[in-house]
Amino acid sequence: MKLYNSIGLVLEGGGMRGAYTAGILDVFHDNGLRFGGNVGTSAGATHLCNFIAEQKGRNLRIDTVHSKNPNYKSWGSLIRTGNYFNVDFCYRVLPYELDPFDFKTFYKHALETEIYACVTNVETGLAEYKRLMDIDLDGEIKYVQASASLPLCAKIVEVDGKKFLDGGVADSIPFAFLDKKGFKKQVVVLTRPQGYQKEKNPLIPLMKIVYRNYPKFVEAVANRHIIYNESLKQLESWEQQGKTFVFRPSVDMKIDRLETNTDKLVELYKLGVRDAEANMPALLDFLEK
What we know:
Helices cover 46% and strands 17% of the residues. It is of the alpha/beta class. The radius of gyration is 18 Å and the shape is globular.
């Protein structure tokens, strides 16, 4: 294993589009790559945890095998519990019973590196970044849950006296955060192809009703596309300067963030593997410079 202490890893969210990230990370695992700073937003945060725990294949199993379990996600769960993704199944049954998570290995790496989950504070509308050390049921797993809690599809997550939802609302690609933390070079994994531009959320009227008590959060949702597209411009500039190495899907597979077609998710994973393998020589050159 090679630990690049001065380099950061940034994982964008995107719901089920995270299957692409899973493919990238499994190739990183095969090449023994580790990074001094790590941050994930939404699905990026959940996929990051398995990478840190050195559990190759676990992200793919969750995205394509466990996701087919009716207890994993459903509109019925949303109606009954307020969460499209069943919280008890995802954060207790899966990691402790069906597909055990390696908490020990995660903690070992957490002592050696910095690992963060990006969340959005619904009262301020701003991004916050929680360093993760111990993510068992009594630890910081609530921040990972909050980071992946999509607006309208999940309850607000209350932890440490604050209220959070999807980190992607305030900071979809938190590369600037790691730069401020002192990681001057970064590897960034996006889940949208080259040329993608985010459009204004068409559900703003509904958001204003559901989150009427949180006007700053609604404002953040309304401005998300502007901030996201500006971030892409900055990221491309940093890429040209040699500050970042960016992975993007080389093929636009039109995967929805709540995608249920397992075959499409497997193909997206395989695309991530191919893209990572094809770019590995260039990545290693970037890391070693």
